[in-house]
Intraflagellar transport protein 88 homolog
Amino acid sequence: MQNVYLAPETDEDDLYSGYNDYNPTYDTEELENDTAFQQAVRTSHGRRPLSKTSLASSMGRPMTGAVQDGVARPMTAVRAAGFTRAALRGSAFDPLGQSRGPAPPLEAKPEDSPEEKIKQLEREVNELVEESCIANSCGDLKLALERAKDAGRKERVLVRQREQVTTPENINLDLTYSVLFNLASQYSANEMYTEALNTYQVIVKNKMFSNAGILKVNMGNIYLKQRNYSKAIKFYRMALDQVPSVHKDMRIKIMQNIGITFIQAGQYSDAINSFEHIMSMAPNLKAGYNLTICYFAVGDREKMKKAFQKLLAVPLEIDEDDKYISPSDDPYTNLVTEAIKNDHLRQMERERKAMAEKYIKAAAKLIAPVIDTSFALGYDWCVEVVKASQYVELADDLEINKAMTYLRQRDFNQAVETLKMLEKKDSRVKSSAATNLSALYFLENELAQASSYADLAVNSDRYSPAALTNKGNTVFASGDYEKAAEFYKEALRNDSSCTEALYNMGLTYKKLNRLDEALDCFLKLHAILRNSAQVLYQIANIYELMEDPNQAIEWLTQMISIVPTDAKALSKLGELYDGVGDKAQAFQYYYESYRYFPSNIEVIEWLGAYYIDTQLYEKAIPYFERASLIQPTQVKWQLMVASCFRRSGNYQKALDTYKDIHRKFPENVECLRFLVRFCTDIGLKEAQEYATKLKRLEKMKERREQRIKSGRDGGGGSRGRREGSAGSDSGQNCSASSKSERLSAKLRALPGTNDPYESSSNKEIDASYVDPLGPQVERPKTAARKRSEEDDFADEELGGDLLPE
């Protein structure tokens, strides 16, 4: 309280006293009794100028600014209240000045003045630069370059006009810089590297542009694209020298560019120096991964291990997942947690974590086979190091990758053992391992094991599309197509982008003869996989089954544009053209198919028949000769060769061919008939010999037919024995057939065949299966094609259909 001072209560003169005094002048109720007021109303007394003394006496208190008792009354709010001297002189009360009328309009500047022209040009240049940038972001690079050139031309006009009006110091350097920089960027985007470099040189050499040296990084990037590595490194280093040390991040990025350039140039030692410097100053994932690659290239095992450990030690700088779990029941906290669970920052954290996992797994795959004496030991070391780092959950993924590597090496037993070790892990790893095991057993046609592991995968993770797809595959193989379709539908509900499930569902609908639904599935798949030959073939095949050959031809033509060397697709296209009566197009595609695969009997037969129909017998001979080489036990092809010689007029060659056929097939009646006719027409002595052989063969044939006929008329016992024998043979054939089906199951499991294939996404199975015959597509098998190729011609009359007499 010692610092508190109270105001004294003494009576001092108050300068603001008298304001609360009542002035009877403003009492309107007493105006009738006011003599002075009444007189002023009746006469012009009220218009007389008032004197200070009369005003003061009438108001009852001193005027503002009046001197009373030697003290001036304070001046307060004179002009703010609108009281002016004009009011005292009898002017009207107008505090807002409305009596003066509206303000005069601003003086308009002439539009043709130099300053206005310069400002207008500046606006146009800025608009052109903005249009160029927008066009570039939309992907229209040509329009972006045109707008950039227009901006450059107008900017030069602007500079000339400004030099005529003002001094050179007033030139807008920022505008000039932005125009030149945008033009150089658009040149680079359009791969006009020489023009881009020239434009960058203009900027860099101009000393008036501050911090233009950083653009040498862009010049280095252009030289890198041109594979001029020495110049790229030179410009990167020049840019590095001009970047201040305070800009640490920029210097690290330039150093990383230098290291990558050294890698592409094959100078791994210099690249190692750059990445080692980065890892010592500011370690990051890309630098650690590139450093591991460099040590792998030089073959230094110990340094590879250290680089891998440095990669694992790079901090992710992301929050833990516990942050996104609400620990309390507070609704406000729960709302905040829900809001940040999938915001942009959370998505960036996921992308960063996914990138780290990608680099670590790729580095482990790379160095595991070479850092130790065996691949397994190297992978085990990588797994142990990962378990001791912040990426503990990646250890199980590396184990799955280890199993996939065994698959690539065709070591299926080791792959199965590795996957079985993961069955007791958490649900995610268990589901992945069971999915891959199911796929492996499905390929080996062990459907019971495949179904068991598919059930395990589905129970571990019901929302895994790969597990559901594999379960659908096992059900499909057992023949329950309706149930298989339900599994594929559930997989698509969980992941609409699961192309394996969509493809297999189309095959299922085709098996059920629901062609419209199958076509809808494959058309949806075609919208996702635009260049898939298997999908295009399936669409064409469905149109063929729907008896729409024109649509089938159109889709097969699209397929041929993707796989122009597929012999089966070419022959199928030739077959469709032949069906619609276009022999010329059919010949073209059959001939192309023959060029790529000259061992297809059906194609060879069609080409030979085509030349016979066109009476070009000499050209048909090579095709039938090739057919006789492919099927040497089939006499038909050699008879066709002899017939072509005979029809072309080369009788001696035809006779020699018939004699050769008779030596190989002495009991062939058709060959003897031609020899008898031929020798008789020419007058050879061998005619009687061949006629005798022909009669003997015909008698043998008659006796054989009589024995067969008498056997049919015999007792039922022999018939029963024959039926039993036939049943036994049938059983053997069924067994052989089932064996062949098991052997072909592996091919049917691959994409593009008639049966579903296993799901092989990157997260589940990373094995690639390559068919040595090239791209294969499904060919619908009819009942006639179920027999072997040799039996196809066993029941036909030799020389009958192809060579009518």
In short: The longest strand covers residues 67-68.
